[in-house]
From TrEMBL, chain A:
GO cellular component, one term: membrane
SUPFAM superfamilies: P-loop containing nucleoside triphosphate hydrolases (SSF52540)
One Gene Ontology term of the molecular function aspect: ATP hydrolysis activity
Top-level taxonomic group: Bacteria
Name used for this protein in its record: Glycine/betaine ABC transporter
Stored PROSITE patterns: ABC_TRANSPORTER_1, ABC_TRANSPORTER_2
Homology family: Belongs to the ABC transporter superfamily.
Protein source organism: Candidatus Synechococcus spongiarum SP3
Keywords per UniProt: ATP-binding, CBS domain, Nucleotide-binding, Transport
Length: 353, 525
């Protein structure tokens, strides 16, 4: 039960088939284990999501990564039921959202779930402030309260003084800040980010990513973050789910995925990534006993450079440059392991001992 | 291959044997001539006055031999029209002789004049048509070749059997056409009389029957019994009863008379038993119109004009204010004040009804497949029917006067309102709607807070269209007694008072410009 309480979003065995004969197609898929192309050919239906299950814990940023057409945007729209699953269940705060009435669903969307879109989708006829307060307005909040909370959010996203402008007067990056502020306006528990930064140029994207990360740390939102950019997924995600052709291929921490890619598809993806910042000391360190067996005594480990098991390879490199001795990894004051220069170099190459 | 050497030396002429062979294969008979000509066309070296002598002399027969049906129809049409004109020469010559024997000199002169005119027209058409065909022949035949290259099943070369098709066409079309031109065709009435005589069993000359069947109006094929006569007299207690009478005449009637009588009776029936409905509609339109007229007609001219000018300044700027003042001054000086205000009232009333009815209809069309399936064909019909025709049902059900005029106007002017509202709503980006839904918008909130505001430019364009269409229809509705400026024009037409009509016409144009400019300016704000 305790685990359940921590899980804000649970997606259980969700299938989505688009098309007039969706139900029929789904039965056929189950019986004959059809592929996406076969489903399209036989039923004129598109298999968008194939048996996806995952859970997102409170305060986590869960990244869903996949190429275009892999079904990630479809999947995220199931969480606020903009799309109905053909089969499967979605629980938000332990509640099955498929069972909600239209009014309850609207209340859930307005109060519990904020969403940010790739193309911003701001309302051009409203001021920035009215755009931000849109969710509140839909819940019939009074104008004064709307005004106040919109102003607070404008400050949060660094757009003070733009409240009375039209969205069209703002740059793309600023518009997406408005989109973010709008999603935060009702102080929702969950944030759904559908490729929020993909349409922005790289420099602005990076700035917004950093800002969002620091915002997210202070605000304690549970976030599902969709992206087609692996770098972005690695930067943002506490865990990452990789999707291909509607299937969730692998779910894990960035480190997991880099070091233990589940299949060649994922391996191809992560091949080009630098492990410097994504792999941590505990992955490559040797146990003190093994080190003693292979290299010799750990008696003067106190004089070696010291690091935490959660230190990334980049910081280990800085420590070991110009040193002859290995690095001692300490957790809670105890010697947990030793990283030699060789192990570090191999780790940078992407190999674990 | 073109070998181009710098320094202005002569370029080697391209090897054209491939093209020539293909041209010859296509042309078959006289391949050398067509090969040469087509090569020139390809090289853009064909002289401007190049004529194909075979086509010039052979006319459409040459085209049918070659299987080029476009050229065939061009040649056939010009030759045919020339032949008809020459046949008319014969017809009027005979008529002139007849008139001379009857001693009607003025008729002789007229027929001789017509005969000469047709002779000239016939000869000019014959020569010009052949020249045109000769000039077009090779040019169009080359296009024929280009299509044949792609699709080898197209006719190529020269074939006698195709001449047969051409001859058949002549046999079918030419004799009757020329016969029609050379005869005085009997009119429809005399043919109907003839039909009655045949029905009564009398003897009729064969030639008259033949003429009625072939060269007169399309013969009456369907004869139907005369429909019964219905009347709906009012009883003492206010109810209506239905009285059936035998038709007045005995003879059968044609399809047109039969159906139009039925329609009349249907309308009479509806008016007798559902009159309250039409009276109700009329009354409500009256109420609206009275309210509007109280503003424009019932208010002293000083107040109204000041109001209109101020409204123009406020809505569209000072320049439009000046223009409005000039227009109003024109109307006042030429004595059109009351009538102009009456026209504007009619327009405003019709526009109000159009917007109030058109907006929900447009939303329905945009939102529901059923709505689109029901309303769109109706809009198509409403926009296809000429504006005059609307006056008929309006008069039939609502009698004459201003309310039926407004109704006809509403039917005429509403389609753009519905269409542009629907278009505006359909063009709201799906992503924007999705975002609104994601934040918990109800269908009503989606419509009011997202779709309608985003569709507003389109809706306002619709209002502008409605205003302009209403104004034009209100003028036409004067025919059924809607009054206003249109009445002056209709009256002036009836009495051939050109000057008065022109002045009123200018007044209408000025009102239209005034309203159009102001509404457009408002749209842009």
């Amino acid at each position: 039960m305790a685990i359940h309480e921590r899980q804000v979003i649970e997606v259980q065995g969700v299938w989505k088939v688009f098309g007039e004969r969706a139900e029929e197609a789904l039965q056929a898929i189950w019986q004959d284990n059809l592929h996406k192309a076969e489903v399209l050919e036989q039923f004129g239906a598109v298999l968008a999501v194939r048996d996806v299950s995952f859970a997102v814990e409170k305060g986590e940023i869960f990244c869903i990564m996949g190429l275009s057409g892999s079904g990630k945007s479809t999947l995220v729209r199931h969480i606020n039921r903009l799309i109905q699953p053909t089969h499967g269940q979605i629980l938000v705060n332990g509640q099955d959202i498929g069972a909600l009435s239209a009014a309850e669903l609207r209340a859930l969307r307005a109060t519990q779930i904020g969403m940010v879109f790739q193309n911003m989708a701001l309302l051009p006829h409203r001021t920035v402030r009215d755009n931000i307060a849109f969710a509140l307005e839909l819940r019939n909040t009074d104008p004064f309260t709307r005004h106040q909370s919109a102003n607070t959010l404008l400050e949060t996203v660094g757009l003070q003084g733009y409240g009375d402008s039209r969205p069209s007067k703002l740059s793309g990056g600023m518009q997406q800040r408005v989109g973010l502020a709008r999603a935060l306006a009702a102080d929702p528990v969950i944030l759904l980010m559908d490729e929020p930064f993909s349409a922005l140029d790289p420099l602005i994207r990076r700035g917004l990513q950093d800002e969002f990360l620091s915002l997210s740390r202070t605000m304690d939102k549970t976030t599902v973050f969709i992206t087609h950019d692996l770098d972005e997924a690695m930067r943002m995600g506490s865990r990452i789910g990789i999707m291909r052709d509607g299937e969730m291929v692998q779910i894990g921490t960035p480190e997991d995925i880099i070091i233990h890619p589940k299949d060649s598809y994922v391996a191809d993806f992560v091949q080009g990534l630098s492990s410097l910042k994504l792999v941590f000391a505990h992955r490559i360190m040797e146990q003190p006993e093994i080190y003693e067996k292979n290299h010799g005594s750990v008696a003067d480990a106190d004089t070696w450079p010291q690091a935490h098991p959660k230190a990334n390879l980049n910081s280990l490199v800085s420590l070991i440059v110009g040193q002859q001795c290995p690095i001692a990894i300490r957790a809670d004051g105890k010697l947990a392991g030793i990283v030699t220069k060789d192990a570090l170099l191999k780790g940078i190459q992407g190999q674990s001992p | 291959m073109t070998a181009h050497t710098p320094g202005g030396e002569k370029t080697v002429p391209p090897d054209n044997s491939d093209s020539l062979a293909s041209f010859k294969e296509f042309a078959g008979h006289r391949g050398d001539y067509y090969g040469r000509t087509f090569l020139r066309i390809q090289q853009a070296k064909l002289p401007g006055l190049h004529l194909n002598t075979s086509a010039l002399l052979g006319g459409f027969l040459w085209a049918s031999l070659r299987g080029n049906w476009l050229l065939f129809w061009i040649g056939f049409a010009t030759d045919m029209i020339a032949a008809v004109n020459l046949a008319l020469v014969h017809k009027y010559d005979l008529a002139a002789v007849q008139a001379a024997t009857d001693g009607k000199d003025f008729l002789v002169q007229r027929y001789d004049g017509w005969s000469d005119a047709h002779l000239q027209a016939g000869l000019v058409l014959l020569f010009a048509g052949r020249l045109l065909l000769g000039w077009l022949a090779d040019r169009l035949y080359y296009h024929h070749y280009a299509r044949w290259r792609v699709n080898r099943s197209l006719p190529s070369g020269q074939a006698i059997r195709r001449l047969g098709i051409g001859m058949l066409a002549i046999l079918f079309v030419a004799p009757l056409t020329i016969y029609r031109a050379s005869q005085f065709a009997p009119d429809q009435r005399s043919c109907i009389k003839l039909a009655h005589m045949i029905q009564d069993g009398q003897q009729v000359p064969l030639k008259d029957r033949f003429d009625c069947w072939t060269i007169s109006e399309f013969p009456t094929l369907v004869w139907l019994p005369r429909p019964l006569q219905y009347a709906f007299p009012r009883n003492d207690d206010g109810t209506r009863s239905i009285v059936v009478k035998e038709p007045s005449g005995k003879r059968p009637v044609n399809l047109n008379n039969w159906l139009s009588e039925h329609i009349d009776q249907g309308i009479n029936y509806l008016k007798a038993f559902y009159g309250w409905l039409f009276d109700g509609v009329t009354r409500w339109i009256r109420v609206l119109l009275n309210a509007v007229e109280a503003v424009f007609v019932g208010t002293p001219w000083m107040v109204t004009s000041l109001m209109l000018i101020l409204a123009a300044v406020k809505l569209a700027g000072s320049r439009m204010g000046v223009f409005t003042a000039v227009v109003l001054l024109y109307l006042a000086l030429f004595g059109f004040w009351q009538t102009a205000m009456s026209t504007i009232s009619l327009t405003v009333a019709a526009t109000v009804i159009c917007v109030v009815a058109g907006l929900p209809l447009g939303i329905w069309v945009a939102k529901s497949k059923v709505g689109a399936a029901v309303v769109t064909p109706m809009l198509d019909i409403m926009q296809t029917i000429p504006s005059f025709v609307y006056l008929l049902p309006a008069v039939a059900f609502f009698s004459v006067g201003k309310p039926p005029g407004i109704l006809a106007t509403v039917i005429f002017a509403m389609p753009p309102m519905v269409r542009l509202t629907a278009l505006g709503i359909q063009h709201v980006p799906a992503s924007t709607k999705e975002a609104a839904l994601a934040f918990g918008a109800s269908p009503r909130q989606l419509l009011l807070k997202v779709e309608l505001p985003l569709a507003l430019p389109s809706i306002m364009a619709g209002v502008n269209q409605v205003v302009m269409l209403s104004l034009s229809m209100v003028v036409i509705a004067a025919i059924i007694g809607a009054g206003g400026m249109g009445f002056i024009v209709v009256d002036a037409l009836a009495r051939t008072q050109v000057g008065r009509g022109i002045l009123a016409g200018i007044g209408i144009a000025l009102i239209a410009m005034m309203i159009d400019r102001v509404v457009q300016k408002v749209n842009r704000l």
